[in-house]
Amino acid sequence: MATWDDVRRIALALPETDEQLSHGHASWRVRDKGFVWERPLRAADLRALGDAAPTGPILGVRVEHLGAKEALIGDDPEVFFTTPHFDGYPAVLVCLDKIGVGELGELIVEAWIARAPKRLARAYVESNFPRAE
How far apart are alpha carbons 60 and 62 in whole angstroms? Predict the structure, then answer.
């Protein structure tokens, strides 16, 4: 299963990405726009989740839109979840110790594409995912 080292390696391999501390926790940004971050559960999250609150490391991940968030949570609620704090916000929380490295990589790349400037994202996609002719 994935680790913080995997998150760091995958995120920092993406163009114009840097790592910063935000509220004492690691976050990864592309041109000052956050796309993934360490997100331990807070007291309000624990109250809202009750017995369903996960105990392992939690990664926050931006998604393209609320539909993508709902799809991820619906497809695998053991890995993806949300809290009331993120209601109406295009981000999902991920149980890092329950996701495979390959799936984590896809999620981080998609988050980066959603937050990167359009030209930068387009250049990355064109060079890494060539279309079949």
Answer: 7
- Residue 132 pLDDT > 70, yes or no? no
Neighbouring C-beta atoms of residue 62, cutoff 10 Å = 23
Reference 73, options 39, 105, 61, 50; nearest CA is 61
Is the Cα torsion angle 115, 117, 130, 13 positive or negative in sign? negative
Model confidence over 108-125: pLDDT tens digits? Answer: 999 999 999 999 999 999
Q: For the chain, how far is it from start to end, CA to CA, in angstroms?
A: 36
The rounded percent of the chain whose pLDDT value lies above 70 is: 98
- The CATH class for the domain spanning 4-128 reads alpha beta
**Residue 114, amino acid:** A
Q: Residue 16 corresponds to which amino acid?
A: E
- What residues does each domain of the chain span? 4-128
C-alpha span between 39 and 26 (Å, rounded): 9
- The residue whose two tokens read 């980066």 is 112
**Does position 131 have pLDDT exceeding 90, yes or no?**
no
